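stuck on this:

***
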Amino acid sequence: MTDGSTDKLIYDWNEQEREGALLTKTPRFVDESIRDGIQSPSVRDPSIDQKMEIVRLMDSLGIHVVNLGLPGAGKRAQDDVEALLRMIVEEKLSIRPNCAARTVAADIQPIIDISQRVGMPIEVTAFIGSSPIRAYTENWETARLVRHTQEAMSLVVRHGLPASFVTEDTTRSHPDTLDRLFRTAIEAGATRLVLCDTVGHATPDGLRNLVRFTQSVLSSMKVEDRVELDWHGHNDRGLALPLAILAFELGVDRVHGCALGIGERVGNTSMDLLLLNLDLLGQLDPERHDLSRLVEYVSKVSGYTGVPIHPSYPLSGEDAFRTATGVHAAAIIKAQRRGDRELADRVYSSVPARRYGRAQVIEVGHYSGRSNVICWLSERGIEPDDATVDAILGVAKTSDHTMSEAEIRGVIAGLV
């Protein structure tokens, strides 16, 4: 393509019959990587210096809010939250802080104290279990939930902090209970409701029904203009990412997620994949969201928490733009020979690698053809003569894996 654009070569079914804008509001994001993310039983809690580096990366990506932790968990959590908050202030970062708390004074008071010592407001996201299965297990009555909600929100508001009310397991909670809790929280001063798919139960229909119900409560109270909605989803059914995008489409103001999708059990919505998809859908402001460091963000969270990146993980995985299959490699190579890097990026990928700091990689394996070998050799300044190509391809066709560089160079050395 002489203009470097592949748009006219792609028929995009995603855009057909769409009426109006995909999103009616500018999407905003809450990063839970260093709170809910590190609640995974498999992660290593990063050091405070590592958490600071992660928060700086979040800020560079244009993420709006970071959950700094749960100070009610103890002194270490409190110390980390305070250090991170001071860093945000001292370095004049744009990202805003929030903290999680149970709807009890013992959890909320440390957040108030840290906020006052540092001199910066912290949004308090106070949560309470709201589903009948949890209430039955805990022997809770609705009246108790209402009392805790009222007391917690009032305490937060009394100290001048933003009050967000979180119903745990919202997606399995009865509408009568939610209606009562939502109204109590709002009347006590909450300016945000956080709808939680705590165990990854929701389907698209479930999310749609829940958001519409909640919006109807806000409408009946005439508070739509001052009470916002968040969505916090887990991935137990593998639906967290599409539900997060749907939540934005339904008018939710903020969506929560974690780098690499880490978190309890099977994890949270993947923040990096949410940003990636909204960027590809044209829904992110490039002046705010510079995604050139998106892979770095995932890599650092992976390294600091000890959670490996699966080779086939989108964008950041080792194999995301790597192929040893002959027909795929041939198409990429032909695009490269045209001198069109964008075409090479898109002919066998929906994600343009260069846009996010990655590149197409051609390997040699048992599904490879001559073009794979020729490309591999040429990229390394090695003459791809017939004897060398045939020898490498002969070994590759009998191998049960993609050949390593050492193996290929070993074949070459054997020809000398």
